[in-house]
Amino acid sequence: MAQQLKEMFNRAHFARLAEVLEAIAPKVQRTALLKDLLNGNEDRELNARMRHTSITLRKHLRSDFRKAVDELKKVAPLMPTGYTALLYPDFVGQFGLEDPAFSLDALKHFTSYGSSEFAVREFLRRDAKGTLKVMRTWAEDESEHVRRLASEGSRPRLPWSFRLDAMLKDPRLTTPILERLRADPSVYVRKSVANHLNDFSKDHPKYMVDLLRSWDRKHPHTAWIAKHASRTLIKAGNTDALALFAFSSNVKVRVDGLSLSAKRLKLGDTLEFSFTLTSEAPRNQQLVIDYAIHYRKASGGTSKKVFKLKEVELGPRASLDIAKRQRIVDFSTRKHYPGEHVVEVLVNGKTFADALFTLRV
Description:
Number of strands: 8
Oligomer: single chain
Helix content: 40-55%
């Protein structure tokens, strides 16, 4: 993924950017700008390419920061949206920290072209209280992009960014933002709220569950957020999170016949396994059925990753046959190492069966 995004900052993109800027910004000379943008570009990774672009534009645009931002505001509608448009917020985050009121308004403007979620964290790190005051107003904006920014930008553990220590220590700082967005009509916003709450669950699980318990989860949007936000705790078998959705932490089931299609696999093969789940309770049970793989690490240890299978209501003494296939391939987020791996069957967060396979890389 990072490789694909990196290639978006290519010669064609920079040529278009230089062309547009020359027509808008009186100081810009297209040839000189393009030369500086391309200088060393092939040797840079994704974030370094974007940062180099911001630094280069600071050199070529108006020396007055506000006037330079005004020029970029004219550029943004004429360029592609998406990842390359994160350039504009990045420019503000790097060079606008001494002018927070103007800069935060600029981030609000640019986020509709390319998310300002990373850039706004520079301001949160410097002045959490003042920045959050502004972001709370964003949570009531008519634009779903701005409302999402209020939640996503203030997440304690935003992927691909540094962690916000103040928010990690005290989830109450961003709770007012989430309160405003808990029934948001946009799924784009609701996903961010759920992920923000899931961040809470990793450091303050009781606080997160208590907050969800205080919300009116009869509203379908709020109910969706609550369920998605609780995924990590449910996978871990957290009793309070399970109870929130009527899942018992004291399930009465057994797992029979867990079998793997092969005990020896190589990279690129497909892991296949199946088992039978039987209720041993005299009443219906709400069950979350997951599986986990303990992946071998380079150090020789293992790392557990939980995957969802299904949620069911299983009747008294009823049985359910389950089968699953998963390809064993490398991703940008996971590299496989040779050795013994473990497959576990989890029901409401508890292990009921396991099996071994050996991976050859």
